Amino acid sequence: MVSSRANSTSSLPLILDVEDFKGDFSFDALFGNLVSELLPSFQEEDADSSEGAGAHDGPFNGHKRAPSDTVKLAQEPLFPEVDALLALFKDSCKELIDLRRHVDSRLQSLKQDVATQDANHRKTLAELEKGVDGLFDSFARLDSRISSVGQTAAKIGDHLQSADSQRETASQTIDLIKYLMEFNSSPGDLMELSPLFSDDSRVAEAASIAQRLRSFAEEDVGRHGINMQSAVGAANASRGLEVAVANLQDYCNELENRLLARFDAASQKRELSTMAECAKILSQFNRGTSAMQHYVASRPMFIDVEVMNTDTKLVLGDQGLQAGPSFIARGLATLCKEITETVRKESATIQAVFPSANDVMSILVQRVLEQRVTAILDKLLIKPSLMNLPPVEQGGLLQYLRVLAVAYEKTQELAKDLQALGCGELDVEGLTESLFSSYKEEYSEYEQASLTQLYEAKMEELRSEAQQQSEAAGAISRSKTTTNPSTHKQISVTIVTELVRWNEEAISRCSSFSSQPSTLAANVKPVLNCLLDQVSQYLTDGLERARESLTEAAALRDRFMIGASVSRRVAAAAASAAEAAAAAGESSFRSFMIAVQRCASSIAILQQYFSNTIARLLLPVDGAHASSCEDMGTAISQVEGAVRRGLLLCIDTVMAEVERLLSTEQKITDYRAPDDGNLPDHRPTNACMRVVGYLSRILEVAFTALEGLNKQSFLTELGDRLHKGLLNHWQKFTFNPSGGLRLKRDITEYGDFVRRFGAPSIDEKFELLGIMANVFIVAPESLASLFEGTPGIRKDGLRFVQLREDYRTAKVASRISSVMAEA
């Protein structure tokens, strides 16, 4: 704020106050207030800016009083206010300097005041700290005295408590001695006892005192009894307490019986509070064992015969053991549910009555398993004799094993439910296992015997069906001279699947009965061996039956072989019989190939079953898996041996028919056509077409039935035999050049057919046959070069070249003498 007053140094009286610099100080505002009267234009610009920006809310920082000649100066040109402004600024500077001095003086005075006050404050704080330290010392002394007084009071309290305890103990001891003297009065005399021992309202106290007296007296008698060995006179010292011991025993027994009677009466009325009171008192007698056992034994499910009969009726129904495993399983499930519910209700009562509820539950659950469950198991599981097996029509051993598995499963479930209800430290799982220990000892033998019984029954059924089919076709079979392989029962994959299913069921039972991997492996291995033996036996027998039909067809074929010197009528009849024998052989061949195919499917099912089910059970035990793999390999090798023998017989059958067709269809003129001027026939011979047609027809089933190495070895052997058979056959003929061309055409036909075998060695042999046929086609003088250019045909070619029609006339031997010499 600027106010006007007299100033000796300036014509423009200007006063600056310290208050002008407080708050939101603005130099622009201060400057504007100083020059506003000397420079009206500045004031107008400032007003314009204020209107544009809004009203100025800041404090007014100065005020100037305008002189009288301001108007005149404003009319002068070239800024005439400069002198007035200079004077104004000089005065302002002087004022500011005076203000600064004034402010500095005030600041100095304030600093002195502050220093004085600070010194006084520090002095006061020092005095307060001394006072607080003294106060803390006083409190520490007071706390020490209080602690000392408290310790003294605690010691006094401990002494008082000890004295009171000693007084109480002395009083109790006096009472106990008095009571002991009463019991020590005379043997069997319980009439002179204190009222405490006959007051029903103080039974708990009487029981506690009687137990304490009894414990003391028995301990004293025992101690003196030991000392009697060194001091004979000590016998008299303990004789009185022996009377007390006998009387106390009689009293405790009488009191315990009285409490049990009261407990029973309360139990019949369902007075849980009275039962709990009696149980609490009885817990002082042998930890309440008699009360626990008495309560459990009095449960209706253990003493009511009707309950036991109902259990049997529920599980077995009216049919007894013939009810079937599914019916028995439903009955056992219902019975286990009923037992669990009964135990649950008893558990609620036990929890409300007995102080040691877990001990009572342990006794109850043990009694349930050992009495109620064992009773039904004894009626369910009657062990059959392995020497006299029950008939399959009545379920056989499988019925017993299925019932055993169901009973074991349901008993395990019941044990888990009872365990969940709580049964203390009772080993429910071990107790359950002990119920089945006698059944599990011979379980493996029963399982093997059952599988054997099922297999024999199935085989007997198949034999019976085959016999019926044979009898039905008996008249037709007797009227024909051929064998009918369809009367032989073929191998069925369904039968093998059924064998595997029986074994899988047995393995599942093994898994249920065996908790340890070693035990499981020991049970699984013989059961698996049963399956391997059965499948091997079934497949081998089926293959042997199929092979027998091949043998019968071969015998029939040999039976109708005739010589050359027979009549035409006999020859025609023999040819007809040979055709029938050939048809029988072809049918037997097809039957054997179907048997091989079903064997392969059966072995695949067996291997898949081993991989999916058996392997995971044997792998945890060292050596078990490898041993079973070896057993399986042995079983499969037996089947493969039967297949191998049958396939060789199949090849014999095929080659016998090939030879028959060649011998009957091949004409002499096929390879030595007359030179009649007609064009040579480039078609395969009729014999070749018949043989290839027969092979194509009969091997179609072989291509489908065989696979892998069996197929490869069979076709390779057949191709080799066909090659040898053709060589032997062609050695019976004489060839001219046109016949050689036709032979080459036959060889091409045979080669195209055997190429389907996929056997490179056979393809190569027939390719050499095609080259060898050239020995009948080329000119005699070119034979030597043919043998030299193709060494592979030399051995057979030298034999076949002798079959040339012109071998002697053209002196072929001399032309190839050098080749023959090298051979």
Automatic annotation (TrEMBL):
The UniProt annotation puts the region (Disordered) at 43-69, 466-488
Q: Where is the composition biased (Polar residues)?
A: 478-488
Which family does the similarity line name? Belongs to the SEC10 family.
Write out the biased-composition intervals (Low complexity): 466-477
Give the species this sequence originates from: Platanthera guangdongensis
Name of one Pfam family that matches = Sec10_HB
Question: What keywords are assigned to this protein?
Answer: Coiled coil, Exocytosis, Transport
Exocyst complex component Sec10-like alpha-helical bundle domain ranges (all copies) = 205-813
Q: Which residues form the Exocyst complex component Sec10 N-terminal domain?
A: 83-199
Q: Which protein are we looking at?
A: Exocyst complex component 5
